[in-house]
Every structure is written in structure tokens, then in C-alpha cells.
Specification:
Elements: H1 20-24, E1 31-34, E2 40-43, H2 47-72, H3 80-98, H4 100-113, H5 118-123, H6 126-162, H7 192-236, H8 247-299, H9 303-342, H10 351-364, E3 371-372, E4 376-377, H11 380-399
Antiparallel strand pairs: 1-2, 3-4
Helix pairs in contact: 2-7, 3-7, 3-8, 4-7, 4-8, 6-7, 6-9, 7-8, 7-9, 8-9, 8-11, 9-10, 9-11
Length: 400
């Protein structure tokens, strides 16, 4: 029997739901709810403060270790691959905190553009955007709740299988993050579980930063593409011949479309401003992290270490690829506006419309792209550059 129950409209907060482990650990950086007037607002959250404390403690300890090694020649307990990816995650978290007001305002803007009427949602094909989001959300849920425990538990398993008793010091490959801790806690087997729990907390903090960044980046991009595609369909439906019969109503409709195009271009510019610093810094940090991971996998014969490092290596490649792919998709969606205008029978319109069309076409040639201060453009060419940079760094390390 066919289900005749009315379908509920999709809301903006449905796209912004955190992962379960973020709720368990209280590391929800943006908590959203509706107020009495049904307006989407950000509720208070302590996620940033918990993450800030963990980051300050972790980097203070590691900074002291690096300074002691460089200035006094003391032995270091640094794990370069883990330290690089920790910086990679923390940059994303710092960007989320510094740009939190811009992010909140952008989400509010998307919420205003998201219709609550089911028919209008069907017209802009919101259900397709939500279906794509939900499929990806479930994949990330599986990654976070399976891959994260596996990554954290492997050093513990190595310690339990290879330790030589309470008198033997803890080696680096038995630690999760490495680095320095006061009172030589990292090498003291009596405090191994305490240190491991601290490392797990820092790891959960970094992964939570990564997932929040990833969710916001992809949800914003998905909604922008959805609105751009809807505008393209509206441009394709324009009949220039109507400008000869009902000019006033025809140009009123064009005014609405141009204003919407200007709004979407402004939103694309704001979207790029939010993430451009993270693009510039974290992508190159990702290259360094990927280089170190490849080096560790190539140089070790320890099966546990290979498994431990191959997981973040695959994740780094996959998510770097996706970010570059998303940039290409946004660029293509923006370029389709010009294509939609070019395929019109503009020559069938009135003289006024033909003049207006030339100006509109010139404005539509301003394709929206993701980039960082004109230094890089986030697209598939950039992904190739990152992979080549990582391989060159890897080759350099092997040669030394």
C-alpha cells in the first residue's frame, strides 16, 4: 500500500547535524536550533573551549620539546607524521573559531533562501541535495565511529603485545601522538593509560574539527550549486519573444533573476572568504603530512604501524581530492549561467532586450571560483599539484 502520509519539509538544521561522537564528547562547535519565531539561531556551545584547552596543552608540550631539542640538544620524542596532521586539523579548528561570525551569518543567509514549502523545495530540487548529504553523512559516521577507535586502539594493542613489563620505558611506536610531557610521563609505564586517554582526547578534538569543517564546507557548497542550477533552469526558460508583447512584466521578471544572480555571486564570494585562509595553509600542510605518512609506510616493516598510518593517508588523499572536486563543481555551476544565456534565442527579443542581454552576458562571464588570495585555485589541477608536491617531498626524504 502506498504511503499517503504528507512529507515533512527539509530544514536547514537537518544539514548541520553533528556526528554522535561529537555529542558524546561535547565537541559540537556549532549547535543550531529554532527560536520562537522559527528563526534559525546558534545556541551556546562549549565545544570550542574544550578544544582550545586541549590544543593549548598539546602544542605547549610539543613546543617545549622542539625548543629543548633545537636549543639544548635534548632527545626529542616527536612523531612528525602525527604532529603535521595535528597542525592540519588545528588550522581548520582555528579557522572555524576566527570565522565563526561569518559562518553563522552565511548559514542564516542560506536558511533564508531555503524554502519551507514542499512544492518550492521540489522546484529547486532540495531533496536531491539532501539525499547527497545524507549519503555522505552516513559514510563519515562509519569512518568516525570505526576508523577513529581503530586508530586510537592500535598503539594500545602494540603496547600490550610488546611491552617488557613495568620496568621497561614506553617507546614511541607504543604511543598514540608522541611528544613531550612533564615528569617524563610519556616514558613511565605506570601512567601509560592516563597519557593514552589524553592523546585520545586530543585526537577526538582534531577529528571533530575536521568533521565540522568538512560538513560546513560541503553543505554550503551543495546549497550554492543547488541555487545556481535552479537559476540556470530559470534562464533557460526565458522566451525573449515575450519582450515584444508584454515588455513591463517581462523585464520585471528579468530584474528578479538578475538580483538573484547578484545575491548568489555575493554568497559565493563570502563562501570563498570564509575558507580561503584554510585552503592556503592546510592544503600545503596536508602535502607535508601525506609525505611523512608515505615515508613512514615505506620505511617500516611493522604491520601495526603500516595499518595505523595507511588509514590517515587514505583519508588525506580522499578528502583533498573531494575539496578540489567541490571547487571544480562550483566553478562549472557558475559557468553554466553564461552557457544558459548564450543558448537563448536572444535575437528574437526586442531592441531593449538585446541591449540588456549584452550587458547581462558580460556580467555572467564572471565565473565564481574558489581560491586563496590569487595564489591558488581550488580545482582538480590544484589536486594534481598537491600530489606532486607530496611525492617530491617524499622523494627528497628518501634520498637523504
Amino acid at each position: 500500500m502506498k504511503n499517503t502520509e504528507p512529507r515533512k519539509p527539509i530544514k536547514m538544521e537537518d544539514f548541520l547535524r553533528p556526528q554522535m561522537f561529537q555529542q558524546w564528547t561535547r565537541m559540537v562547535h556549532f549547535a543550531w536550533k529554532r527560536d520562537g519565531s522559527n528563526r534559525l539561531v546558534k545556541s551556546s556551545s562549549i565545544g570550542f573551549w574544550i578544544s582550545a584547552v586541549l590544543n593549548l596543552v598539546f602544542f605547549a608540550f610539543n613546543g617545549w620539546d622542539i625548543i629543548g631539542h633545537l636549543m639544548m640538544g635534548e632527545p626529542t620524542n616527536q612523531n612528525p607524521p602525527v604532529f603535521c596532521i595535528t597542525i592540519y586539523f588545528s588550522i581548520r579548528g582555528l579557522m572555524l573559531f576566527l570565522k565563526r561570525r561569518e559562518i553563522i551569518n552565511f548559514v542564516y543567509a542560506l536558511d533564508r533562501e531555503c524554502p519551507v514549502d514542499i512544492d518550492k523545495q521540489h522546484e529547486i530540487r532540495l531533496e536531491r541535495t539532501y539525499s547527497s548529504f545524507w549519503m555522505r553523512y552516513r559514510f563519515l559516521r562509519a569512518y568516525a565511529h570505526l576508523g577513529l577507535p581503530m586508530f586510537c586502539c592500535l598503539p594500545l594493542a602494540v603496547y600490550l603485545l610488546t611491552n617488557d613489563g613495568l620496568g621497561a620505558p614506553i617507546t614511541q611506536h607504543q604511543q598514540l601522538l608522541g611528544g613531550w610531557m612533564p615528569f617524563d610521563l610519556r616514558r613511565n609505564p605506570r601512567f601509560y593509560l592516563l597519557v593514552w586517554l589524553f592523546d585520545v582526547s586530543c585526537t577526538a578534538c582534531g577529528v571533530s574539527f575536521f568533521l565540522t569543517f568538512d560538513n560546513l564546507f560541503n553543505v554550503m557548497q551543495g546549497h550554492l550549486i543547488m541555487h545556481l542550477n535552479h537559476l540556470c533552469r530559470q534562464l533557460e526558460a526565458i522566451d525573449p519573444a515575450e519582450s515584444l508583447t508584454n515588455e513591463v512584466e517581462f523585464f520585471d521578471g528579468l530584474k528578479t533573476l538578475v538580483q538573484r544572480q547578484q545575491l548568489l555571486n555575493r554568497l559565493c564570494g563570502q563562501y570563498n572568504d570564509i575558507f580561503k585562509v584554510a585552503f592556503l595553509v592546510s592544503n600545503f600542510m596536508g602535502s607535508g603530512s601525506l609525505c611523512f605518512y608515505l615515508f613512514m609506510i615505506a620505511e617500516t616493516t611493522d604491520l601495526f604501524m603500516i595499518i595505523q598510518y595507511i588509514l590517515p593517508t587514505m583519508v588525506l588523499v580522499a578528502f583533498t581530492f573531494e575539496i578540489c572536486l567541490r571547487g571544480t563543481q562550483l566553478e562549472e555551476a557558475s559557468a553554466r549561467l553564461e552557457s544558459s544565456l548564450r543558448h537563448q534565442t536572444w535575437y528574437m527579443g526586442s531592441r531593449r532586450y538585446r541591449k540588456f542581454f549584452l550587458l547581462w552576458l558580460q556580467y555572467s562571464q564572471r565565473t565564481q571560483k574558489l581560491g586563496a588570495f590569487g595564489l591558488i585555485e581550488i580545482n582538480m589541477v590544484h589536486f594534481t599539484d598537491i600530489m606532486q608536491l607530496a611525492f617530491r617531498l617524499f622523494t627528497f626524504l628518501r634520498s637523504q
